[in-house]
Structure formats: structure tokens, C-alpha cells
Write a structure and sequence with these properties.
This protein is of the alpha+beta class. The protein has one domain (6-155): Beta Polymerase, domain 2 (2-Layer Sandwich). It contains seven helices and six strands, in the order αβαβααββαββαα. The chain has helices at 6-19, 27-34, 51-64, 70-78, 104-110, 122-132, 135-155; strands at residues 23-26, 42-47, 82-85, 91-95, 112-114, 117-119.
């Protein structure tokens, strides 16, 4: 699969906005939207877990071209902790309970808006990677931390 592209992020943003989905870009895709100089193969979205949001999310995903099975649609509706989708125009990871972040509402209050994209704050992205403790996340942490310092200086 090719790298996740900015055009696809726009499509997600616009479809989710039309359907009223509450979500945040998280992970490397979120960091890239903040300006982190890297690429990613998929998009990672932290999605608010609620019946209404889950139903809106299913509609938006189908509009985007994801061929959801009924089983996948049910997982999305009920907010299964992690749903990985590879049956659409790009790979998408839906995270309803990311490591290191207790509540969606807290992350939502700390979010950063970038060209209309709701993005997790860099501290939440880093905190989630620390908490997940996966080898690929540990490997990227020094670069993300260095980027955090640059990003914070730029925001002053």
C-alpha cells in the first residue's frame, strides 16, 4: 500500500465533517499534520466512543469507499478498542481507547486545529506511543521528542 496522502486526509476531514463524526488524528499521521517530517502508510484516528458517533462513522466510512462487512460495522458502532481497516481507498486504524489517553474529551480539549483537521496535541501523541511501548514506537520517540521542542518553539 502506498503512503497515506494529504488528499486522503482532506477526504476524511470532509466526510467526517458532513456526518458529524468526532475524531482526532493521532499517531504518526497526527504528528505529520502538525509538521513532523515523515511519512506513514496509514491514518490513525482516535474516535469518540458513543452510539451516535459510531453510527455516523460507519456512514462516513462507507461514503469514503470502505467496504465494511457487517461485523466491522458492528465493531465500529460499539467502539471496539481498535479496528484496523484495509478494505478501502487507504489503510485506516480506528482507535477508540488509545494507550496513554484516559478520555476522549480530555484529548479533545487539548487538540490542535491544523487547516480544519482536529489533531491530538503532540504531548498526547508522544504519551500514547510511550504507553504502547511497541518497538516501532520506541524507535520513533527520540525524533518525536525533538520535533516537539521545535513545534513548541514555533507556536510561541
Amino acid at each position: 500500500m502506498a503512503a497515506f496522502e494529504y488528499r486522503q486526509a482532506l477526504e476524511v476531514r470532509d466526510a467526517f465533517q458532513r456526518h458529524g463524526v468526532r475524531y482526532l488524528f493521532i499517531g504518526k499521521s497526527g504528528a505529520i499534520l502538525l509538521g513532523f517530517p515523515d511519512t506513514t502508510q496509514d491514518a490513525d484516528l482516535y474516535v469518540e466512543k458513543s452510539a451516535q458517533n459510531g453510527e455516523a462513522l460507519v456512514r462516513a466510512l462507507r461514503e469514503l469507499g470502505f467496504d465494511l462487512t457487517e461485523s466491522q460495522a458492528d465493531e465500529v458502532r460499539r467502539g471496539k478498542d481498535f479496528v484496523q481497516l484495509k478494505n478501502g481507498p487507504f489503510d485506516l486504524d480506528l482507535v477508540f481507547a488509545p494507550d496513554g489517553i484516559e478520555r476522549f474529551e480530555d484529548a479533545w480539549q487539548r487538540r490542535v486545529e491544523v487547516e480544519g483537521f482536529p489533531v491530538c496535541h503532540i504531548d498526547d501523541i508522544i504519551g500514547s506511543k510511550v504507553a504502547s511501548n511497541r518497538p516501532k514506537d520506541r524507535e520513533s520517540l527520540p525524533r518525536l521528542r525533538a520535533f516537539r521542542e521545535y513545534w513548541l518553539r514555533q507556536r510561541r
